[in-house]
């Protein structure tokens, strides 16, 4: 069955065929070219490589004339062998070829010269299983049955494994006559494109051993693509089309995305399995915008703030995301996001919210405020940084923002130096809204990463706060400061490219940010 690229090769295999015809006509046409050797043989070779990579079926390549004389055939066969191609068919015409269905009495190759091409091809084959099919064009170019039989026998004697006898008549008569005289001297291959009406049983009974359905996948796709383009152009809409075309999921399946996902689990570092908790239980004070819904659901350019945040997490490979909700929780509906309730949101703080979701994280975890936005690279940096607990801290933060707002200010053992290649990490000494200006190293943006060990420490510290009766009131700065007093809490310095949404003017900034 014909295929002309990796995808069509897969489709042919799925249908159940046992072999592929890499058609010269359809590979050329799918490149937008004529079947006249306009694509160079190495360009065809590149297509064949994609096909061979896409299927386990043996591929018989339409090698046209062999792209020249015996020497070109030698090199062609060698290169096909290196790409795992099962066989090649060469036709007894002259380079550059013309498709057999065009014109009359195309010139044929000299018999002896063509036999040299066959011998050279067989002498260059990569192993004994490689197949060389010699294609006889005598019937199609009007040289008659005797010439066809004479040539076929010469090619067989020269070492061809099979003979392709081609015809452009609308009946199989000359093919059946040829087969009768051939008497199964070696396998016969046919291409019934023009005599498609002849029942296959009749052809098989006549002793033909291989039928090539030579171009029907490309022709089918032309019909489908033309119709789809026409409909979409006419309606300027997709509603009429969706049910008529293969789904995007089908594309993913055909090209093997499932295998890639399995491989990612095996080969990518743990970041792919990190989970995230978003703290979004408090209502916020944005006037009418937060009258019915929490701040995280405020619309920022057509999507809730929370959706922008979860998209950033997903882009980093984080799939399991839990959001802790309280105020207006019934207004929060996001696909693929799990929710956890903090119904005591009015009298509790961030640490209590986090404690509600602590069972949702085990190994590596991200903890993030629900009212912030940051560029993807910041999360990538936090994920890649060494350390069991890593905080994204804006080194400019303390200086840039208007005073009078509650800020998670950071005191650290090392300030941001401006040298990006610093290998000495900075650590948290204290986080609080109340740090002497000269001691401020930056502002925590509300994004933290915990390794498996870090998550265990976090769980322990939450349990301790609870035991001490401090959990209800504790905020993240207190929790992180306590962790920093016992363990290394690493500071990952950034410079801007994030924001939190506390005021109406922040909403405007967030729109610009997106
Ligand atoms: C091809 O598929 O490119 C062939 C078969 O060579 S035919 O077009 O019938 O010549
Ligand atoms: Mg061809």
TrEMBL record:
Q: What are the entry keywords?
A: Isomerase, Magnesium, Pyruvate
Q: Name one Pfam family in it.
A: NTP_transf_3
The family database entries (CDD domains) matched by this protein are listed as: ICL_PEPM (cd00377), PC_cytidylyltransferase (cd02523)
Q: What class of enzyme is it?
A: isomerase
The record's annotation in InterPro entries points to: ICL/PEPM, MobA-like_NTP_Trfase, Nucleotide-diphossugar_trans, PEnolPyrv_PMutase_core, Pyrv/PenolPyrv_kinase-like_dom, Pyrv_kinase-like_dom_sf
EC number(s) on file: 5.4.2.9
Which one of the record's GO molecular function terms can you name?
phosphoenolpyruvate mutase activity
Boundaries of every MobA-like NTP transferase domain copy: 276-393
Domain of life of the organism encoding this protein: Bacteria
Gene3D superfamilies per the UniProt record, alphabetical: Phosphoenolpyruvate-binding domains, Spore Coat Polysaccharide Biosynthesis Protein SpsA, Chain A
Q: Which PANTHER family match?
A: PHOSPHOENOLPYRUVATE CARBOXYLASE, PHOSPHOENOLPYRUVATE PHOSPHOMUTASE
Similarity field: Belongs to the isocitrate lyase/PEP mutase superfamily. PEP mutase family.
The record's listing under NCBIfam families reads:
PEP_mutase (TIGR02320)
Question: What protein name applies here?
Answer: phosphoenolpyruvate mutase
Tell me the organism: Telmatospirillum siberiense
- List the top taxonomic levels of the source: Bacteria, Pseudomonadati, Pseudomonadota, Alphaproteobacteria, Rhodospirillales
